Amino acid sequence: MRTFAFIAAIACFGFTAQAQQPTTATAAPVKTAQNPHAEAVRALSGQLKDVLGKVQQMSIANTKQMQGAGAADTERLGKLRTELAGMMNRLEGNLTTVNSSTPENFEAASTEAKSSMTMAEELINKVKAGK
After folding, report:
1. Does the pLDDT of residue 4 top 60, yes or no?
2. N-term to C-term CA, the chain
């Protein structure tokens, strides 16, 4: 009797799962045409987010270092912490500017964002070098 109930339950589950699967005509993705501005914004935004993530990781590592640092290193690490926080704010501002840019002002936003990313990479290298 238990075997029959078990088989019946599996059969019902199988039929229900089959009925819920979408058909290929319904599930086919709709391809929409993207304009060049939107694609450029998306690409630059991704780059900014990547660099921002690296700076945030450096900030987390810096905070951990400060917790175990002696008096001599505390001042140096505090200055790095301030630089990292400023860079995160700058990158977040660039991200907002790029994402809200129009085709007319994208070039200026792009130039500023690329400059910030270069500065951020230099700061990351500085932190990695322990300076």
Report:
1. no
2. 75
Residue 113 pLDDT exceeds 70: yes
**CB within 8 A of 120, min separation 6: which ones?**
51, 52, 54, 55, 87, 90, 91
CA dihedral 95, 100, 103, 106 (to 10 degrees): -30
Dihedral sign for Cα atoms in the order 115, 120, 126, 131: positive
3-state helix, strand, coil in the chain (%, to 5): 80, 0, 20
Q: What is the pLDDT of residues 58-92, one digit of tens each?
A: 999 888 888 877 777 888 888 889 999 999 999 99
Tell me how many helices (H) and strands (E) the chain has.
Answer: 5, 0
pLDDT of 53 reads 94
